[in-house]
């Protein structure tokens, strides 16, 4: 379970998160929507401990992410994150990209790590690209490789930060299909997205962020068909 | 008809000088590169303010002509420290620090060029700072910095011609000795240049080969 309690976060004078409270249960898919600068992506990097927070706390399975005593490297092993820019390691093949962390972080043997990597790469439709370097893949393929790379660590939670935003429109579908597949398999996910149809189809709950606050959260039918907050209504009208 | 007094023994003498040039260059570039990596990484970690004292020292090695550095270092070691160290050791020490001064900037630039987002992706997978440096940052920075490093290594090899001032008989000094004896300066300098080319060419080609291989990744 991920518990986000009254989280505040500022970059200099700019407060990007103004007291966020959110609990995500195991197996749940929560989608976060909202305009640019609403704090959605910052929240994900805070959950993963990549950004410190100013106030409040974030607990992952009861472990406080930002506590000084927390071993962040160990905690991150159970929280996979995939970014808007896929950030492939360009000097490694697809297979090496995926096996690197299991081998070096989890201490797996080469054969075991490769077996897991091959399974995950087949899972995301890249079983034929094992020895290819990332620069020879399309954006969609690189993004799916990044997903396989995160999944190879067998995380309990997956965070997706606008993973289709940097893709050409024709490549968006293949990545969303991969996310849908993960959701159907019961992976606990928090997805920041601008893909409203995806949010409606896949989510258990959808949260709307506006200027650093979580203006509204609810099941997709309610939030999309009967939004309660005026800003949610305005936002949904603008993206329809 | 062209005639020269140059004998095979003279060519062997030149080859020995070339060997000394290679030795001084190899030791200096090796130590200088190791120091450059350490300083370059520390520069990135500590930031410009905390690293300022080291930057100041390295700036001295970059700013003062190598000839002056060699003469002063030799005098300092012999007259102030009163140590009996060979000219070769002094030459390697000075050239190593001289190489490190330039290499630090090359390494710093290479590390800086690795996208922060790539490093963040590595850390998000649970990698420690050391693992991130070892498996992601340094391999990528090496690819970025290689052309500059090859240029530095070739430059150090040519600059090593100055170590004659600390009584090291390297290639150019060997040539000068032969010029004094044979009085055939142009011909001997031509041969000396050919030796330098033979030493440099494989390194330049090796750099080109690596660049080409890595560009296929």
TrEMBL record, chain A:
Residues 2-236 form the ABC transporter domain. It is a peripheral membrane protein. It holds the Pfam family ABC_tran. GO terms for cellular component: plasma membrane. It is found in: Cell membrane. SMART domains: AAA. GO terms for molecular function: ABC-type amino acid transporter activity; ATP binding; ATP hydrolysis activity. InterPro entries: AAA+_ATPase, ABC_ATPase_HisP-typ, ABC_transporter-like_ATP-bd, ABC_transporter-like_CS, MetN_ABC_transporter-like, P-loop_NTPase. It comes from the Bacteria. Keywords: Amino-acid transport, ATP-binding, Cell membrane, Membrane, Nucleotide-binding, Transport. Belongs to the ABC transporter superfamily. This is Amino acid ABC transporter ATP-binding protein.
Automatic annotation (TrEMBL), chain B:
It is found in: Cell inner membrane; Cell membrane. PANTHER family: L-CYSTINE TRANSPORT SYSTEM PERMEASE PROTEIN TCYL (PTHR30614:SF0), MEMBRANE COMPONENT OF AMINO ACID ABC TRANSPORTER (PTHR30614). Residues 18-199 form the ABC transmembrane type-1 domain. Keywords: Amino-acid transport, Cell membrane, Membrane, Transmembrane, Transmembrane helix, Transport. The chain crosses the membrane at residues 20-42, 49-77, 83-103, 144-166, 186-204. GO terms for cellular component: ATP-binding cassette (ABC) transporter complex. Pfam families: BPD_transp_1 (PF00528). CDD domains: TM_PBP2. Coiled coil: none annotated. GO terms for molecular function: L-cystine transmembrane transporter activity. This is Amino acid ABC transporter permease. Belongs to the binding-protein-dependent transport system permease family. HisMQ subfamily. It is a multi-pass membrane protein. Its main location: membrane.
């Amino acid at each position: 379970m991920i518990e986000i309690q009254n989280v505040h976060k500022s970059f200099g004078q700019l407060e990007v998160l103004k007291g966020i409270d959110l609990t995500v249960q195991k197996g749940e898919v929560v989608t976060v929507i909202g305009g640019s600068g609403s704090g959605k992506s910052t929240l994900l990097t805070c959950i993963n401990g990549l950004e410190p927070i100013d106030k409040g706390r974030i607990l992952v399975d009861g472990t406080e992410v930002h506590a000084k005593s927390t071993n962040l490297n160990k905690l991150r092993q159970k929280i996979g994150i995939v970014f808007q820019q896929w950030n492939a390691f360009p000097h490694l093949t697809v297979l090496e990209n995926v096996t690197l962390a299991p081998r070096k972080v989890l201490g797996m043997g080469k054969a075991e790590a490769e077996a897991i990597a091959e399974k995950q790469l087949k899972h995301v439709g890249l079983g034929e690209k094992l020895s290819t370097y990332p620069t020879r893949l399309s954006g969609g393929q690189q993004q799916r490789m990044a997903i396989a790379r995160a999944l190879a660590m067998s995380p309990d939670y997956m965070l997706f930060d606008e993973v289709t935003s940097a893709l050409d429109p024709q490549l968006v579908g293949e990545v969303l299909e991969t996310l849908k597949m993960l959701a159907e398999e019961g992976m606990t996910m928090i997805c920041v997205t601008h893909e409203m149809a995806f949010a409606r189809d896949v989510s258990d709950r959808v949260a709307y962020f506006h200027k650093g606050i979580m203006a509204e959260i609810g099941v997709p039918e309610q939030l999309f068909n009967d939004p309660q907050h005026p800003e949610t209504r305005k936002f949904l009208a603008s993206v329809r | 008809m062209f005639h020269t007094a140059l004998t095979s023994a003279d060519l062997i003498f030149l080859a020995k000088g070339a060997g000394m040039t290679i030795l001084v260059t190899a030791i200096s570039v090796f130590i200088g590169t190791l120091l450059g990596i350490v300083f370059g990484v520390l520069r990135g970690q500590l930031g410009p303010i905390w690293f300022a004292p080291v930057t100041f020292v390295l700036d001295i090695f970059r700013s003062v002509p190598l000839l002056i550095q060699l003469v002063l270092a030799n005098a300092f070691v012999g007259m102030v420290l009163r140590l009996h160290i060979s000219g070769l050791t002094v030459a390697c020490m000075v050239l190593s620090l001289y190489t490190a001064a330039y290499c630090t900037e090359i390494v710093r630039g290479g590390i800086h060029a690795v996208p922060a987002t790539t490093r963040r992706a590595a850390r998000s997978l649970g990698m420690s700072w050391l693992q991130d440096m070892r498996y992601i940052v340094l391999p990528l920075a090496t690819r970025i910095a290689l052309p500059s490093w090859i240029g530095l290594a070739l430059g150090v090899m040519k600059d090593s011609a100055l170590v004659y001032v600390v009584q090291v008989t390297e290639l150019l000094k060997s040539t000068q000795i032969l010029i004094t004896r044979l009085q055939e300066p142009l011909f001997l300098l031509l041969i000396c240049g050919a030796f330098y080319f033979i030493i440099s060419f494989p390194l330049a080609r090796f750099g080109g080969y690596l660049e080409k291989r890595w560009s296929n990744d």
